[in-house]
């Protein structure tokens, strides 16, 4: 496999019934992780999430959070050929009067960490979100597993970023009846994104490998949605992913990391690539409170987290699935040379909520 096709560990903000990390085969073999795979990697169509694309006009704020705060390494601006720019403009529906510079943010020394494609736009665009409120629909977060959220919480606040609430610590049950502690803070990252610091205690592996400073990730991404059935059908039937856990949770209300109204309940679905122990997506669908609907589409070229990118074993199969399920296909590009994913056949399409999905074919 191309060395850029890295698996990732993804986890959302409530931490309940979570999988272990990219080193997780041993942990899963211990049968004390509720999300141990029952499927096989050989049956996967889409592989774990590879790249998250964020559009911004605030390069310095982005670097302050992701580089100075979360310790990521930055490359860029990258060389983007005219051919690639023209293809991306079609795939991402970029306006003709908007140009951009591309940066790659990654976790040095942690090959399994997700990478960020940061697009620094030449002019402001509408924002995907109107605020950091946890009830807003659309792409919610990137998560950063680490060995000491207490320390990371202090560091991020010192760098200058607030959070939805104070650090929350809570127990999570294990299949054997014991429990472990989660420490979690949901930070207010640039462009109304959320950056989540999360530590699993009591001997549990972190939710992704960590670097020499004890920080990992980004290692997960999540969305707040409505109409779970159509959303989950897209991810399972078009991309061939699987639902590994599907539960209803009651939040900790105004005391919790999400800072929701007291008594809030939501459906919490965890979606994996088949056989994977990493790379899952999390979907929250509120049951007894009304979500907030932002004014603008949750997609590029709007500012914020606007696209997920997946390696797939057969692009044609995904396109056939998309046609069968009435999915909007935005663009298909052949033999595209992209510094973040290599030379690939690439397509973009829209999930039912309008969120942009990029898929690119890989040969293993």
How would you characterize this protein structure?
The protein is built from 6 helices and 16 strands. It has 364 residues and is of the alpha+beta class. The protein has an 8-stranded mixed sheet with strand order 2-3-4-1-13-16-15-14, with helices on both faces. Strands 6-7-8-5-9-12-11-10 form an 8-stranded mixed sheet. Strand 3 and strand 4 (115-121) form a beta hairpin. Helix 2 (59-69) packs antiparallel against helix 4.
Secondary structure: elements and pairs:
Blueprint: H1 25-29, E1 51-56, H2 59-69, E2 73-75, H3 82-92, E3 100-106, E4 115-121, E5 138-145, H4 149-159, E6 168-173, E7 179-189, E8 193-200, E9 220-224, H5 228-238, E10 242-250, E11 265-272, E12 281-286, E13 304-312, H6 315-324, E14 328-338, E15 342-350, E16 356-361
Parallel strand pairs: 1-4, 5-8, 9-12, 13-16
Antiparallel strand pairs: 1-13, 2-3, 3-4, 5-9, 6-7, 7-8, 10-11, 11-12, 14-15, 15-16
SSE order, as H and E? HEHEHEEEHEEEEHEEEEHEEE
Number of helices: 6
The CATH architecture: Roll
- Number of domain units: 1
CATH topology: 2,3-Dihydroxybiphenyl 1,2-Dioxygenase, domain 1
Q: Roughly how many Å apart are the termini?
A: 5 Å
Question: What does the average pLDDT come to?
Answer: 89
In percent terms, what proportion of residues is strand? 25-35%
Q: Name the CATH homologous superfamily.
A: 2,3-Dihydroxybiphenyl 1,2-Dioxygenase, domain 1
The major sheet is characterized as: 8 strands, mixed
Estimate the helix proportion, in percent: 10-25%
Tertiary shape: globular
**Strand sequence of the main sheet, in spatial order?**
2-3-4-1-13-16-15-14
Oligomer: single chain
CATH C-level name: Alpha Beta
Which regions contain 5 or more consecutive residues with pLDDT less than 50? 1-30
Number of strands: 16
Keywords: Signal
Signal peptide: 1-24
Organism: Paraglaciecola mesophila
Protein name: Extradiol dioxygenase
């Amino acid at each position: 496999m191309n060395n850029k096709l890295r698996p990732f560990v993804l986890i959302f903000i409530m931490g309940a019934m979570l999988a272990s990390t990219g080193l997780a085969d041993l942990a899963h073999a211990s049968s004390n992780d509720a999300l141990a795979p029952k499927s096989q990697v050989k049956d996967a169509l889409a592989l774990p999430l590879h790249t998250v694309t964020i559009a911004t006009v605030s390069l310095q704020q982005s670097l302050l959070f992701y580089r100075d705060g979360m310790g990521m390494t930055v490359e860029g601006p990258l060389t983007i050929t005219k051919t690639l720019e023209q293809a991306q403009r079609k795939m991402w529906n970029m306006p003709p009067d908007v140009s951009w510079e591309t940066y790659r943010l990654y976790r040095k020394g942690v090959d399994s960490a997700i990478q960020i494609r940061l697009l620094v736009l030449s002019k402001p665009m509408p924002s995907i979100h109107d605020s950091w409120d946890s009830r807003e629909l659309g792409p919610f977060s990137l998560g950063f597993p680490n060995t000491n959220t207490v320390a990371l919480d202090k560091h991020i606040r010192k760098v200058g970023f607030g959070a939805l609430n104070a650090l929350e610590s809570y127990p999570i049950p294990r299949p054997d009846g014991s429990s472990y502690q989660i420490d979690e803070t949901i930070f207010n990252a640039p462009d109304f994104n959320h950056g989540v610091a999360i530590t699993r205690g009591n001997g549990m592996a972190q939710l992704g490998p960590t670097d020499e400073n004890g920080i990992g990730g980004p290692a997960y991404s999540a969305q707040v949605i409505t109409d779970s059935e159509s959303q989950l059908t897209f991810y399972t039937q078009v991309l061939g992913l699987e639902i590994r856990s599907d539960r209803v949770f009651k939040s900790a209300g105004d005391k919790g990391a999400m800072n929701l109204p007291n008594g809030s309940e939501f459906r919490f679905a965890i979606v994996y690539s088949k056989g994977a122990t990493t790379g899952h997506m999390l979907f929250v669908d509120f049951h007894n409170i009304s979500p907030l609907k932002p004014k603008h589409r949750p997609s590029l070229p709007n500012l914020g987290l606007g696209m997920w990118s997946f390696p797939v074993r057969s692009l044609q199969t995904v396109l056939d699935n998309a046609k069968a399920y009435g999915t909007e296909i935005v663009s298909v590009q052949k033999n595209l040379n992209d510094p973040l994913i290599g030379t690939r056949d690439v397509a973009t399409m829209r999930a039912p909520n309008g969120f942009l999905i990029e898929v690119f074919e890989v040969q293993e």
